[in-house]
Structures are given as C-alpha cells and as structure tokens.
Design a protein that fits this description.
heterodimer; A: 87 residues; mainly alpha; 3 helices; elongated; B: 561 residues; Growth Hormone, Chain: A; 4 domains; 5-stranded antiparallel beta sheet; globular
C-alpha cells in the first residue's frame, strides 16, 4: 500500500476520513449487536473495513464516494427491530 | 480448575483493603509497558547470524521495526473484542490469558529468532503478544474504578502509569540479558592476515578445504558490539547474539509477575462503596458523573463514545507527532546551533526525560482530574497543547537566528509539558468513560475505545513521515530557485532537470544545497517541522471541539432496571 500526499491539508483530510471510517465501523458493530444479528453482525462490519481500506488505497476521492454508499446500504439492509438491554 | 479464575471466586471478603488492587494492576501494566522498549531488540535482531555485525542472511531493520506496529494494532483489536468478554468472566481470567499471551508471545518469538523464521517472530511478539497487551491493558481498569469510585482518576492513573514506566524498567533488563547470553563468534584475525573470497556478494574464507562465510568488523562497528572485541574477521555460524535467550528469560519473568498480579485481583461485592462515601446526588452535580449505566453495545450508539474516541485518538496522534520529531529537532536544530550544550549526552538524557514525564503525567493529570473534572482536564490538554504546538516553530526559528539558551530551555519545558499531557490523556480516559457511561461496563467500553489508540498508531507516524517529505521537497525547490544552475551542475555532476533522481539517491540534500546557496540564504532546516506542529495543533483543535461539546448521555441509552 502506498499513500502519498502533496500537502498538509491532504494529510489532515486523510486522518479525519480514517477516523470517520473506524467510528462508522464501530457504530455498525454496536448497531448489529443490538439487533441480534449473530455472526453476521461481525462479518458485515469486517466487509465495511475491507471496503474502506481498499477505497483509501485507491485515493481520497474514491474513499469519499464509497463511505456514504456503504453507510446508506447498512441502513437499508439492517434488521428493522432492535432489542432493549435490561439490567 | 478454570473455576478459580472466574468472577464469583474473586469477590472480596468483608474488610478487604482496596489498595491491594493497585500493585496488582501496576504489576500487569509494568510488564506489558515494556512493549515501548521494542527498539532495544532491533540492534540484536539484525545481527542474529553475524553476531558482531549484520551478515548476508540477517534480517534487515526495515523487516523487524514493523513488529512493534503489529503489536499495537493487535493491542487495539484484542482490547476491543476482549472488552465484552472481560465484563463476562472478570479480570482474573482476562489477566491470566493476558499473561499467557504476553509471556507465550515472547516464547514463540524466541523460537522464531532461534529458527530464523521471521513470521514466527511476527506471530509471537506481534500477534499473540499484542493480544496479551490489549487484554492486560483493559483487565484492571473496570475493577479499579469500582474499588475507587471516589478517586477514579487516581486509581486508573496508577495502573496506566505502569504502562508508561514499563519501558524504563525494560531498558535495564533487555540489554543486560542480551549481554548475559551473548557468546562472541570465532575471531579469525585481522583483514590484512587472511585471504578473503567474494562470492554472490558474501565474504568467505577457506577453512579445512571448505568455504565458510565471515563478517568483517571495522572501526565503525566496534561501538555496536555487545562485548568488546578487536577489528577484523569473524566466522559466521559461531557465537550467539543472545536475543532469543533474552526473549525466553523476559517471557518467563513477565509471565510469573503477571500471573501473580492476576491472582491478586479482587472485585467488590455488589453495592459496595468506600466507608463514609456517598455518590454525589444527581441533581447536585454540576459535572457529568452519571449514576446510570450504559450497556457496552449501546455505548457504541451514543455520540459521546465517538467524541471520546476522537479525544483519545487525536491526543495520541498529536503526542506521537511531537514524540517523533522532538528528538530529531533536538539534534538537528539545537545540536547545531548550541553544540556545547545540546551534545549527544544531553540528547540521550532528553530521551530519558520524555519517558519520565510521560509517566509522571499519567498519575498526576489523572489524579488532578478527580478535582478538576474530566472535561476541564481535557480542555487544559487541548487549549494549552494548541498554544505549545504553535509556539515550537517560532522557537526553532528564533534559535536559528539568535542561538540563545533561552530557546532551548523553552523548547525543553514545552515538549516535557506536552509529554505529560500525552500520558495524562491515556490515564484520564477510563475515568471519563466511567463518568459518562457508568461503572458497570467501563472496562469493556474502554477496550473498544482503544481502537482509537491503534488508529493513532497509524496516523501519527504517517503524518510525520508525509509532512517531513513534503517540507523537504518544498525546501529543496525553494533553494533550487536561488542557486545558479551552472554551480548546481558543477557540484552534483548533473543538471537541475535531474533533480528528482538526485534527491531520491540522496545526492542532493538541503545541507549540500546550502553549501552552494548564495550568502544570506536562510537555512530551511529549522522550518522543516512547522507543518507537523501546525497540523498537530489543528488535530488538537478538533479534539477540543469534541470535548467542549460533551454532554451527558441521553436517558434512552441507559440500562433499564
């Protein structure tokens, strides 16, 4: 993997973008856990991570396009009901 | 058998002294904190075959330095995954598995070194050891917070201080162990006395009718030898660099200490609270300390988790940013402008002070946060940090114009303060989590938050190297504009049109260009780190905003009774 930057703004955008990716993945992981998705709840965030990493290696623009698509897809395909966690 | 590790077996009896948990937690963190001393293994690992200097079949530095990064990434991953397990099985089980992984990781790594299998070293130290790191890091956090609800910051600060101090202790163990097991290779004689043959780039000598590989030790290699020896030719395949045996010894020591520490863990019984302490009433709280609990999975659905993720990640990224350049700045800028003061001994003391202040910051800031409040503590980190980061380029510029010791004193003080805040950021975050999400799942939530650390472990070095490359490129281009092309061609034997190749081959550097630059040209070396510092200040600004907008968790996320 080779990522090159031409100025500090690109480095900053890269850091922000990667943070958004990791946080999105964690959010999906948590969302899956409260929707009784079992093993699928582990696999789907993993696919998200792989897609994100591949997109980042292809450049920031590709990553910017891929992330919202993946995120919207999650909202479309996730189970509709979530369970209440009790003490 | 495994029952003695379970949660129900470690509920403390009446009258248990809660302070006994602190040394157990500290013990585990001191052992796993030795990961920061990884670089001390590098010189020995790259001489595994040649012993006195690198031989043809030795691993390269480039191939072994990544083991540390792998360990940190697996720290984050295992902490994130193991966090939920911790809440289920309790700290003793997790501490025990951590001891097995960390000690076992050294053992597997040692086998990898003995057998010359680099992948085994990656698997052992990086993957298995990394999992031990993550599990060990999170194992005492929730327990400490439950034992010290009145002094959460101080309690977690004690443990996490151990992680900062582990490397300092390891420094006094790694080299002595390597020297203890070191066996010098067979010395054949001086270069002038022995006939050498070169085949396929290897240096060989004929011994008893067969060709044997040798390495040649020159004057420059003597300082890097673990035991003093003469310059000359040494036979490859004889002797022992001692690093594999050091791995086994360290693994055994860490395993024993961590097992003892894990068996020292006790958890308070349900409803226990320190004598005479009452939780602050919810309505009287001006701070954000909740009396409710948020489930580990539900926490991932709150904005507060991601605000804290950014707070931790960007504080660590900025810390790594300054850690990565401070040592170089000290030698490149102050070493050249104030050579009588900032000499090699001064620089090595500076490196030691970095570890010390990082450790002091962990306990002092975390303890102070109990009185200041967590939000205020991070507000201080980020606002003061932004000012300090932005002031460093000015200091570097001033010392280049006017080499005064005042600038060195300022740089020293500013960077040390930054390092205390770097350590303090790590140590205060568990208490912040407990304030926001309650104490019930804080260990597991903290584990998941450590993905921020793993991410910062990638961002920080990436930012430093990228920004330095950009700065060097810009500085060279600026200098080229000021230099006469004919002078350039005479000096480097090629025209400016071949600049890219000349820079790639390190033929053209800033120092070499300064030799032919017109008089009065300002040396750009002192400004090479400006962009790094400004970027880190920007990153801290984002973290400051995240911290400033922190609010209590919405009641819909609280666990229902």
């Amino acid at each position: 993997m080779s990522i090159s930057f031409s100025n500090s703004t690109e480095v900053f955008i890269f850091i922000i973008l990667c943070s958004v990716y990791v946080c999105s993945t964690l959010w999906i992981y948590g969302d899956a856990a409260t929707r009784d998705m079992g093993i699928k709840g582990l696999i789907l965030p993993l696919i998200f991570v792989i897609a994100a990493a591949l997109a980042l290696t292809k450049g920031l623009i590709v990553a910017l396009i891929v992330w919202p698509i993946g995120y919207i897809a999650w909202f479309m395909f996730r189970p509709k009901s979530s369970h209440v966690i009790t003490e | 058998m495994l029952d003695i590790l379970s949660k129900k077996h470690i509920v403390a009896k009446e009258g248990f002294n809660r302070w006994l948990i602190a040394p157990a937690a500290l013990g585990i963190h001191l052992c796993i904190g030795s990961v920061y001393a990884w670089s001390l293994f590098n010189p020995a690992l790259i001489k595994r075959v040649g012993i006195v200097t690198s031989a043809a079949d030795d691993w390269t530095l480039k191939s072994v330095v990544w083991i540390f990064t792998v360990a940190i990434v697996f720290l984050g991953l295992s902490a994130a995954i193991g966090g939920k397990w911790l809440e289920k099985v309790g700290p003793r089980m997790v501490g025990t598995v951590s001891a097995i992984c960390w000690g076992g990781g050294f053992f597997v790594g040692g086998i990898g070194i003995l057998s010359g299998q680099l992948w085994l070293l990656y698997l052992g130290y990086g993957v298995i050891g990394g999992c031990g790191l993550g599990l060990g890091y999170v194992s005492p956090v929730g327990t400490l917070i439950r034992w010290f609800p009145d002094r959460r910051g101080m309690a977690t600060g004690i443990a996490i201080m151990g992680f900062g101090g582990g490397a300092m202790i390891a420094k006094f163990m790694i080299e002595p162990f390597i020297k203890l097991f070191y066996v010098a290779p067979k010395y054949l004689g001086a270069v002038t006395d022995i006939e050498l043959i070169t085949e396929g780039g290897r240096r060989l000598v004929e011994q008893a009718g067969e060709l044997r590989e040798v390495v040649i030790v020159g004057a420059n290699d003597l300082a890097g030898m673990y035991a003093p020896g003469p310059e000359g030719i040494y036979l490859v395949g004889t002797g022992n660099v001692g690093v594999a045996q050091a791995f086994f010894a360290l693994g055994a020591i860490y395993f024993v200490i961590m097992m003892c520490a894990a068996f020292g863990y006790r958890i308070p019984r349900e409803g226990w609270k320190p004598e005479g302490w009452e939780p602050p009433a919810e309505d009287k709280q001006k701070s954000m300390i909740t009396q409710h609990h948020v489930h580990i999975d539900e926490a991932l659905k709150t904005p507060q988790f991601y605000q804290l993720w950014v707070v931790l990640c960007f504080n660590v990224t900025a810390g790594i940013g300054v850690l990565g350049v401070a040592k170089t700045m000290m030698s490149e800028i102050f070493g050249t402008t104030l050579p009588d003061i900032a000499d090699a001994a001064f620089a090595s003391t500076y490196v030691l002070m970095i570890s010390l202040f990082n450790m002091i910051g962990r306990i002092s800031w975390a303890s102070a946060s109990d009185y200041l409040g967590r939000k205020t503590t991070y507000w201080i980190f980020f606002s003061l940090g932004i000012i300090l980061y932005c002031s460093i380029p000015y200091t570097a510029q001033q010392v280049s114009i006017n080499p005064s010791v005042v600038w060195l004193v300022y740089f020293y003080a500013a960077t040390m303060l930054i390092f205390t805040m770097y350590g303090g950021g790590f140590a205060t975050i568990p208490a912040y989590l407990a304030d926001i999400f309650g104490t019930k799942f804080v260990g597991g939530i903290h584990g998941r938050l450590l993905t921020a650390w793993a991410s910062a472990g990638v961002f920080g070095p990436l930012a430093i190297t990228s920004l330095r490359e950009i700065s060097v490129k810009n500085a060279i281009n600026d200098l080229i504009g000021k230099i006469d092309p004919a002078t350039f061609e005479t000096k480097f034997g090629a025209g400016v049109d071949q600049l890219e190749q000349l820079v790639a081959a390190k033929t053209v550097t800033i120092n070499k260009l300064m030799e032919i630059a017109p008089s009065g040209t300002v040396d750009p070396t002192s400004s090479l780190y400006n962009t790094t510092m400004y970027l880190m200040a920007t990153v801290l600004l984002v973290a400051l905003i995240m911290n400033a907008t922190m609010r209590p968790v919405n009641a819909k996320h609280h666990m229902k009774e």
